[in-house]
Structure formats: C-alpha cells, structure tokens
Design goal:
This protein is α/β, with parallel strands linked by helices. It has two domains: about 65-80 and about 330-420, Alpha-Beta Complex (Aspartate Aminotransferase, domain 1), CATH 3.90.1150.10; about 85-330, Aspartate Aminotransferase, domain 2, CATH 3.40.640.10. It is built from 16 helices and twelve strands. Helix 6 packs across helix 11 and helix 14 (about 335-350) packs parallel to helix 16 (about 405-420). The model is unreliable at about 1-5 and about 10-30 (pLDDT under 50). It binds pyridoxal-5'-phosphate.
Length: about 425
C-alpha cells in the first residue's frame, strides 16, 4: 500500500513511549525547568499507542513489494485509476485566469457541485455557506473534532473503528471512549452508547456504512440514537454532536439507498471524502456539510473556517476543487465490487469460515479460524496473501479483507483461504 507516513512514524531510535513527569529528562543547557523531550507528550503518547499498527504496516509494506502477492489489506487501488478522474484533472490543471492557483478556501463551483449532488441523491438542499471543502474525510473529521472539543471533553466512537478516530480525538486533548457495536448484528448498540454518555460527552462518531463491518445502520436505529443524543444534550446543558463519517456512503451493494445519520439528528456534521468513490485516496478532497436544520449552524460556520486556518490552511488544492462537478459524477465499478463480495462470501462460507454479507464499503470481516488472528495473518502472508489482522481494529479473532484487490488477486487468494482452513490450529 506504501503508507509512507507509517514508515516515517516508526520510532526505532527513540522509545516512542509517552514520557511521564518523572522520566522526562531535563536539559542542562536550557535550565532545570525546561523539558528537553524533542516531541510533545501528546504525540509521544499517540506514537506509543499506534506502534502495533506502525510495525504491522512496516512488515506489510515489505511483503506487498513481492511480485504476484494477492494484496487484500487496505482500501487502495490495485488497478489503473478511472479515466474520468484523470480527464478531469487534465482539464482543470490548465490555468484560465491569473488567480487560477491563488489561495483558495471553498471554491464556490465545488460547493455548488456538492450541493447539486446531495440534492439529487438525497433530496436535501444544503446552503452554500454550509459546505466546507476539506482534504478528504481525514481532515474533515480532524477539523470538526477540533472545532467542537475542548481538552477534557469526551468523544464516543464505535468499535470496531477506523484506525484513526482514537488519534484524532486524543490529539485535541479530548478522551476517546470506545463503545462496542452489537457483536451479532454489527448494528449500533444504542443502549451501550447511552450508558457511555457523561456530562463531558461532546460528540459521537458514527460511520455508516461501516469500515470494517460493512454494516449500513438502519433508519430506526439512527432515530433511536438521535433520541438519546437529544435527551443527553438537554441533560448536559450543551449539545452532544453527531459526527457522521460518510466516507463509504456511495459504496453500497444490492441497490440500497443511503440513510444518512444527519437526517435523523440535526446537530450533525456530514463528513465525506471522494477517496472511496473514486478510489483515489492520494488526491485529497472531501467536504463537511452542516444540515439545513442544524440549530447553531451560523456560529459553526465561523468555527469550521477558523479551524481550517489554524490547522494549516486545511483546504484542498485548487485543481481538485474545480474538478468536483466531474468527480461527483464518477464512481468506481460497484457491480464489479459487488461481484467480488459475492464470490468471496460464497468461497469463504464454502470453506467453513464464519462470514457476514456486508451491505457496503470495501471490506469483509470473517472470523479467523485460529484464535490468534495475528498468527493466522502471518500464515496467509507466508503464502502471499495479505490481509489485515483484526487486533489492529479492536476486533481480535477476526481478519479484514479489502475487495479493492483485483480479480486476479481474489482468484489467487481463495484457494489459499480454503487451504488455511484445513490446516491444524497451532497449539
Ligand atoms: C471510515 C473511514 N473514515 C475516514 C477515512 C479517511 O478517508 P480519506 O483518507 O479519503 O480522507 C477512511 C479511509 O480509509 C475510512 O475508512
């Protein structure tokens, strides 16, 4: 996958663990009261927590270089990009005026294209001032969390989660609170979320359809969640926000219609990336939208923009913004993705795996036939099939398959999965 940033994060030469008060060494040059740790304690703590992911990615990056491997690890393209995507970039790289590449915040043409797409697909009309262009959902989530949270606030995320919720929450000094989904249905456990809400709860992150379970949360569940968030907001005397991570909202199977959590609860942020729909996560563009019925949206507009400034001009590049109308109309071949899902679910079930049928996203989450999913994943890697062990996403005993692999990779992997099932479970 070449997650270069992962290799950069490796801390072989420093401990990577969070220095505590007692162990922080003090510089003689700077004086006895100045901490000489080269990095912030916040970041040192994150490096420490993310070391398992970082070291897995190091091994994975090396394994993925081998010619002929079946790479089913992450949602990265394994085939050439969409021609429409390349054509749109070619069109818009050409300057049309002297300010073509001037500083850009939200390019109105991009905002209008986002609004038109959402109106057409969802029947909801967003105001121009409520659409904020971002560097994908990654930045969209970081901006929203920073805009609403103070140090000491709590943000609930649902487990199994996308890798970086914990880091984005902790990076602003807030506390990340993990709440498990229902282990049988992978649907939200609304009672468990309610039980996790405290007076410090500021937001709940909901990702539907979900990476990694592929579950699309039904309207009835989202309405129940909305009711408890309304009650909690009244009880706490301040808003508990819903942050709706809709990264995969256009990656749906079986002609399903998208149910956005933002339509159940007005105090929501819609966060989107084009990185999934186009399978171009290296060209960073997405957006945040404030629902038309959000009570505090005027105050929120200034807060989002100021946060984008202080996060280092967190707006996407001009060329990508000009291209949004074309990008919004393009999409990877969902029929091919669905065929791969069907093929893989059938093959794994036939081989004896316990696997569910995802309703969307790129991912399948089968149960590992060995209790130690790390060992099972290594066993597959030795046979040139690369997958993600569940322990990295709070799902030990499972492994994750990405269907963004090519058909040839899927064909190569299926007999390896079947053979692995017949192997004795190591003692
Ligand atoms: C659930 C989820 N949210 C957010 C993101 C971030 O998306 P992007 O890197 O396109 O901004 C990802 C990427 O894998 C994801 O899976």
């Amino acid at each position: 996958m070449r997650l270069e940033y992962m290799s950069i994060l490796r801390t072989d030469s420093c401990s990577g663990s969070a220095p505590d008060e007692a162990t922080i060494c003090r510089s003689h040059i700077l004086g006895p009261t100045v901490e000489s740790s080269p990095i912030s304690r916040e970041i040192a703590g994150l490096l420490d927590s993310y070391q398992p992911l970082v070291s897995f990615m190091g091994e994975y990056d090396r394994a993925a270089q081998k010619p002929g491997v079946a790479d089913l690890t992450v949602g990265n393209p394994q085939e050439m990009p969409l021609a429409q995507f390349v054509a749109a970039l070619r069109t818009w790289i050409e300057p049309r005026a002297k300010d073509h590449f001037a500083y850009k915040m939200n390019v109105p043409a991009a905002q209008r294209a986002v609004i038109a797409g959402l109106r057409e697909r969802r029947g909801v009309t967003y105001a121009l001032e409520d659409v904020f262009m971002t560097n994908g959902a990654f930045a969209g989530l970081a901006v929203v969390i920073r805009a609403v949270c103070d140090a000491g606030d709590e943000v609930i995320y649902l487990s199994p989660p996308w890798f970086f919720y914990d880091a984005l929450i902790r990076a602003v000094g807030a506390k990340a609170v993990s709440v498990k989904v229902d282990p049988r249905t992978f649907d939200l456990d609304v009672a468990a979320i309610e039980g996790a809400i405290t007076p410090r709860t500021r937001a709940v992150i909901v990702n539907s359809p979900n990476n990694p379970t592929g579950r699309l949360y039904p309207r009835a569940t989202l309405d129940r969640l909305a009711a408890i968030l309304e009650r909690a907001s009244v009880r706490n005397g301040r808003r508990v926000y819903l942050i709706s991570d809709e990264a995969y909202s256009r990656i749906l199977f079986d002609r399903r219609r998208y149910e956005s959590p933002t339509e159940s609860y007005p105090s929501s942020f819609l966060v989107y990336t084009f990185g999934k729909q186009l399978l171009t996560p290296g060209e960073r563009i997405g957006y945040i939208c404030l629902p038309p019925d959000m009570p505090e949206r005027e105050a929120m507009r200034g807060a989002i923009t100021m946060t984008q400034f202080v996060m280092g001009w967190a707006f996407p590049n001009a060329t990508l913004q000009y291209a949004v109308a074309e990008l919004d109309r393009a999409c990877i071949d969902l029929a091919a993705l669905q065929r791969r899902r069907d093929l893989m679910v059938a093959a794994l079930s036939d081989a004896g795996y316990r696997v569910h049928r995802p309703e969307g996203t790129f991912y399948l989450m089968p149960r590992s036939p060995w209790p130690d999913d790390a060992a099972f994943t290594r066993h597959l890697r030795e046979r040139d099939v690369l997958v993600l062990p569940g322990y990295l996403i709070e799902m030990p005993g499972y492994f994750r398959i990405s269907l963004t692999a090519s058909d040839a990779m899927i064909d190569k992997a299926i007999p390896v999965f079947a053979a692995a099932m017949r192997e004795p479970v190591p003692a």
